[in-house]
Amino acid sequence: MAFRLLASAALLLPLQAAHAASDGSGEPASPEVVALQRDMITLDTHLDTPETVDRPDGWSIMDWHDVRSDYSQVDLPRMKAGEFDGGFWAIYTPQGPLDAEHYAKVRDFAVMRGMSIRLMVASYPDQFELALKADDAARINAEGKRIVYMSIENAYPLGMDVSMLKLFYKMGVRETGFAHFRNNQFADSSTDPDGPKWHGLSPLGLELLAEANKLGMIIDGSHSSDEVLDQLIAKSTTPVVLSHSGCKAIYDNPRNVDDNRLRALAAKGGVIQINSYGGYLRARKPNPERAAAAKALSAEMGDEANMTAEQYSAMLAKRREIDAKYPETDKPTFDDFMKHLLHALQVVGPDHVGIGMDWDGGGGVVGLEDVSGLPKITAALLKAGYSKDDVAKIWGGNVLRVLRQVEAAADPKAAE
């Protein structure tokens, strides 16, 4: 995949800026808040960390990394520091041409990315465990291990055969999205510059929805258009989740959801998981020199998937040079993230809101650059007047409740 983070507006601050005191940095969590975080199950519904795990430079999930040096945001030591228990580890594939040749290539890529997640778990069985049912989360957490649910961010790799979804279900996938940045064979994207292709789900997308309901997968509406979301809410036999989205009332961006749709989502038992991708939190000042440098580096280096370790290390060094030469001066802050979270809570209440930060996929804000600082969110929620029970629902209880409903509604014969 070619530089999703580099080409986005979500590049991280240089070392000195990231540590500087600034408005919106969030209050440090007290020992009492950290202890509370430890006592609840803390899940995030959208982790792009499998892409980091597959880096060619020898990056290890077992080591503490510096977000300002190698741009990664999730590893085991930082998970432990932030009392972060795990979540949904995404099989992400960028949108490509809609033809048989590309379907075959992206299918193989997605299968191998799923195997990479399984390999990470198998390589460190005392630290990670694959979760297949909602009740697995509490058991894995009680055993002191990190929880690994699997998800599909873009259904593009399924090609024209929705029965392929069964393969991914058997691999361990329990959540599926439909589209990403562009329209595909299943659904319209919220951000395709050409506008809608299907005005919602395609006929094949309706088949995919039915298949996911039968298998027992969470239906994820993030990245799909408003029309798609309306149809998912209306037609799904189970509640719909937005695995990493924001609130249009706070920032009018196509990736964000308006209040009426939030209420419709909640009325059917669904949950919006608030993300921290800077481009979706608020408007930002253009930085054309930085954007041009990032674009030039992407063109020079090519696709990360084809790099050697030496090429990847060189690319990281050049990214750091861009940070130093063209620092990002208008990066959204912790307060910007909290505005979306608190607004969603005000509109639909703590039974229908969760957290999906988009770690390792462009998420992170000033004051919360990686998972080591997650208790800051808990501290802010408590300060805003939410109870410990409310916070536990937001951090994991709501999505696990949806997963239980999904499991109960599944056809037990569908996965045979």
UniProtKB/TrEMBL annotation:
Gene3D superfamilies: L27 domain, Metal-dependent hydrolases. Keywords: Signal. It comes from the Bacteria. Residues 1-20 form the signal peptide. InterPro entries: Metal_Hydrolase, Pept_M19. This is Dipeptidase. It comes from Novosphingobium album (ex Hu et al. 2023). The lineage of its organism: Bacteria, Pseudomonadati, Pseudomonadota, Alphaproteobacteria, Sphingomonadales.
